[in-house]
Design brief:
Pfam families: NUDIX (PF00293). With about 160 residues, the protein is an alpha+beta fold. The chain has helices at about 1-15, 60-70, 130-135, 140-150, and strands at about 20-30, 35-40, 45-50, 50, 75-80, 85-90, 95-110, 125. Strands 1, 2, 3, 4, 5, 6, 7 and 8 form an eight-stranded mixed beta sheet that branches.
């Protein structure tokens, strides 16, 4: 994965936009409300969704699924179509670069007690509205908030 990051940094130095993939892990609680899992970033400790660099030979969807397992310790079904995109400024050693992130929804079926980045990150299940409030990137916050709206309503057959 380090080679992918180096390639991305090279692209950024040449003024090109760079890309990442992300997963929004979600589940329905007992009342049928959408909950989202957020994780803390390693350096700033802000709440974010699991994200990372594209992986050679893997689709964006598959890479997002792997990032969710590594960073949040969750397994599940990643939906085929991206939920949307957002952009943010990534801090590198001596500059900031603009990164475009393609976001996938991951319906969590299993939470691992131990996972790759467990010692470096905290994770939390939150109602979608609360999660959206805690996320700094406005476009990502909107994607998370829209999960509440997308919840299927029961059919009224009366």
């Amino acid at each position: 994965m380090a080679a992918t990051k180096k390639k991305a940094v090279r692209k950024a130095k040449n003024g090109q936009r760079i890309r990442q993939v992300a997963a929004i892990p979600f589940r329905l609680n007992a009342r049928g409300d959408v909950e989202v899992m957020l994780v803390t970033s390693r350096t700033t400790r802000r709440f974010i969704v699991p994200k990372g660099w594209p992986m050679k030979g893997k689709s964006g969807r598959k890479a997002a699924t792997i990032e969710a397992r590594e960073e949040a310790g969750v397994l599940g079904k990643t939906l085929k179509e991206p939920a949307g995109t957002y952009s943010y400024w990534k801090r590198l050693a001596n500059r900031f670069v603009r990164v475009d992130v393609i976001v996938y929804l991951l319906e969590v079926t299993e939470e691992l007690a131990d996972w790759q980045e467990a010692k470096r990150r905290q994770r939390a299940w939150l109602p979608a509205a609360d999660a959206a409030t805690l996320i700094d990137e406005p476009d990502l916050s909107t994607l998370v908030a829209n999960l509440m709206i997308a919840k299927p309503e029961p059919l009224d057959l009366a």
